[in-house]
């Protein structure tokens, strides 16, 4: 093999490796919050550049650092975008005045509001979710508007998901990337 061809092959391989590590981040699902769509223990690559030239869209499943405690990360589905009006009433999610069609949920899923919570550090590497006793982020039947540069996230397993219903909005700057593919 000529020196030029070796140089080209090495350059292409190096470029592919750099692109892989810059563009994608491996994640492992930890917990039941996104079941049945994504199961605890499954591994995925997150596309960290997915929103470089576009904005997150309703329905995207993303990973993010919690705005209130960014060294903890989550995975959830974007339910509402900045400026959207959201309401939870009688077990259903209303978006901009209409019932949100959620084909990714198990039949019979009931969506409820949740008590406001916080992620409390227990140690340098461990945290826990704790009820703050404060007012709910969203009361039953209350319509709220999503603030600028923020998103309202929910897990697909509504009874076992820690999401925007209890922890609040997720800032655009806190979104790491979009779930790309399973490995």
Could you list some keywords that capture this structure?
elongated, 13 strands, Umud Fragment, subunit A, 37% strand, mainly beta, 183 residues, single chain, 14% helix
Question: Would you write up a description of this structure?
Answer:
By secondary structure, the chain is mainly beta. It has one domain (25-182): Ribbon (Umud Fragment, subunit A), CATH 2.10.109. The chain contains 2 helices and 13 strands. The strands form 3 sheets. Strands 1-2-13-3-4-11-12 form a 7-stranded antiparallel β-sheet. The protein has a 4-stranded antiparallel β-sheet with strand order 7-6-5-10, with no helix packed on it.
Helix share of residues? 10-25%
Kindly report the name of the CATH homologous superfamily.
Answer: Umud Fragment, subunit A
Strand order of the largest sheet: 1-2-13-3-4-11-12
The shape, in one word, is: elongated
Helix-strand pattern: HEEEEEEEEEEEHEE
CATH architecture: Ribbon
Uncertain parts: none
Structural class: mainly beta
Would you count the extended β strands for me?
13
End-to-end gap: 34 Å
Present the secondary structure layout.
Blueprint: H1 3-23, E1 24-28, E2 43-47, E3 61-66, E4 69-80, E5 85-89, E6 92-95, E7 98-99, E8 117-121, E9 127-131, E10 143-145, E11 150-154, H2 164-167, E12 170-171, E13 175-182
Antiparallel strand pairs: 1-2, 2-13, 3-4, 3-13, 4-11, 5-6, 5-10, 6-7, 8-9, 11-12
């Amino acid at each position: 093999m000529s020196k030029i061809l070796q140089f080209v092959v090495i350059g292409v391989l190096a470029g592919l490796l750099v692109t892989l590590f810059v563009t994608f981040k491996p994640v492992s699902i930890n917990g039941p919050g996104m079941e049945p769509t994504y199961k605890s223990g499954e591994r995925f690559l997150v596309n960290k550049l997915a929103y470089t030239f576009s904005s997150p869209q309703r329905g995207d499943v993303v990973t993010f650092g919690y705005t209130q405690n960014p060294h903890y990360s989550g995975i959830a589905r974007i339910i509402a975008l900045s400026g959207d009006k959201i309401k939870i009433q009688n077990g259903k999610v209303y978006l901009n005045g209409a019932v949100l069609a959620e084909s990714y949920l198990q039949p019979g899923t009931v969506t409820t509001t949740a008590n406001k919570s916080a992620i409390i550090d227990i140690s340098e590497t461990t945290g826990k979710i704790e009820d703050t006793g404060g007012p709910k982020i969203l009361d039953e039947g209350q319509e709220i508007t999503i603030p600028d540069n923020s998103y309202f996230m929910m897990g697909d397993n509504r009874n076992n998901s820690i999401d925007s219903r209890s922890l609040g909005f997720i800032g655009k700057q806190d979104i790491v990337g979009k779930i790309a593919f399973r490995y």
